[in-house]
Amino acid sequence: MRTRLAVAALALAGLFGPTAAAAIVVVRHPVYVHPVPVVVVAPAPVYVAPAPVYVAPAPAPPPPPVLTEKLPLDTTMWTLPSGCTKVSSSGSNFFICGPNWLKAIPSDKGTYYAVVAPP
């Protein structure tokens, strides 16, 4: 390309002669520049986990009190008192809680216990 430019400059100088003003004409052609891929390295994402939180389990409910007094017949309760003993008598199951005999009675809302006369 430089030789072409030099030849073009000499040809122009020869046209005008030694007395003419010297002029140099530069002819440029577009140059293709191959694009270079740009690699951008992003930092790795950082995950910060929250500190574990310890939640203590709820304390167990206290056991029902031990039944020591005589209850009237047909008294009902949803839970058995502490210290009851299961006894089978006459083909039925009973619970002896202190001086009381209780029988489990199923219902649509759960099992409840009723004070009954001893068998």
Summarize the structure.
The chain is of the alpha+beta class.
Task: Provide structural commentary.
The chain has 119 residues and is an alpha+beta fold. Among the domains are: 1-31, no CATH class; 76-116, no CATH class. Helices cover 13% and strands 24% of the residues. It has one helix and five strands; from the N terminus they run H-E-E-E-E-E. It has one helix at 2-16, and strands at residues 76-77, 85-89, 92-97, 100-107, 110-116. It has a five-stranded antiparallel beta sheet with strand order 1-5-4-3-2, with no helix packed on it. A hairpin with a 2-residue loop joins strand 3 (92-97) and strand 4 (100-107). The longest helix has 15 residues, at 2-16. The protein is rod-shaped. The protein starts with a helix and ends with a strand. The model has no long low-confidence stretch (mean pLDDT 82).
* Percent in helix: 10-25%
Category by helix and strand content: alpha+beta
SSE order = HEEEEE
- On the 0-100 scale, what is the average pLDDT? 82
User: Number of helical segments?
Assistant: 1
Query: What is the end-to-end distance?
Result: 125 Å
- How much of the sequence lies in strands comes to 15-25%
Report the sheet with the most strands, covering strand number, pairing sense and barrel closure: 5 strands, antiparallel
Q: Order of strands in the sheet with the most strands?
A: 1-5-4-3-2
Described by the principal axes of the CA atoms, the overall outline is rod-shaped
Give the total of beta strands: 5
Unreliable residue stretches: none
What is the C-alpha radius of gyration, as a whole number of Å? 54 Å
